[in-house]
Amino acid sequence: MLNTVLHQEFERVPGRDPADVIPLQVGAIAVVENYALAEVFGGVGDLPVIDGYHLLIRQNGQWIVVESLGVGPEIWVARLTRMGVSNETFSRLLDGLRAVGADYTIFDVPIGASNMPCVTRLDDPNPPTNVRITPTTAGNVIGQIPNGTALTVMQPLNGWLKIRQPLVGWVSMNLTRVSCGNSLDEVQRNLDELQLKEEELAIEAADTLVRYLYRGAEGTSAEAAIAHFNEFAINDFYALEIALNQHTEEVRRQVFQRVIAPGMHPQAVANFNEALLNRSDSSPTLRTWEALKP
């Protein structure tokens, strides 16, 4: 059962044909009550895009992959505790890994808070919203969430959002809306805070901004969001590109059209054009840019 869930999860690598993600191998697995740790390996050619331990959780009788716990043998304790895994359960999971001779390294250090200053909420015309085990309308429903509920978003993928709270699962992105505040001053403060996120949180911040521009930002708030899109393109291009890659062509086109219309910052335009010129294999974002660039 867990092997099937893991294979289904890692067939979805943004920007890659599922057939290219080979080979996918499942190593050690430890299960304690409604939690599991599983070691997974996979790559695209010589590039190891999947390598390390992952946390799974069982909800309403169905297993779902929550997130990576680190790279290679790393297991970051903070990523387990933020999902409510108790110390006792964690210890028993490690006992299970040791019992099968698994190799792992514990990192018991704090990680940066992943809460974004802008809030993603359900905005479903026909609530409650289904939470599914996979990002497709054919995926089994593992629960429902009432309208207006704030969501903790882990990642977007082709029109779906993987959420961590209040349930772990997938919801349609078009049934959500991002709010960065009720006044222009509040919106500006929250967008400024997004801009300060670093490393892996920078990608989450860029994604939040993309989704705000796609469904949420209006009027002067949209102008502020467009200005911050330009700042990301200038100062954190890689994070912005990765965030856009995970969305559908429709989302990328709408966001680009929205930021191009009032006139992009010359350096932002130059960064997109330079990336397009220097890449032998264009990303989905750069292909969309090539079709729409000013």
UniProtKB/TrEMBL annotation:
<feature type="domain" description="SH3b">
    <location>
        <begin position="129"/>
        <end position="172"/>
    </location>
</feature>
<protein>
    <submittedName>
        <fullName>SH3 domain-containing protein</fullName>
    </submittedName>
</protein>
<dbReference type="InterPro" id="IPR003646">
    <property type="entry name" value="SH3-like_bac-type"/>
</dbReference>
<dbReference type="Pfam" id="PF08239">
    <property type="entry name" value="SH3_3"/>
</dbReference>
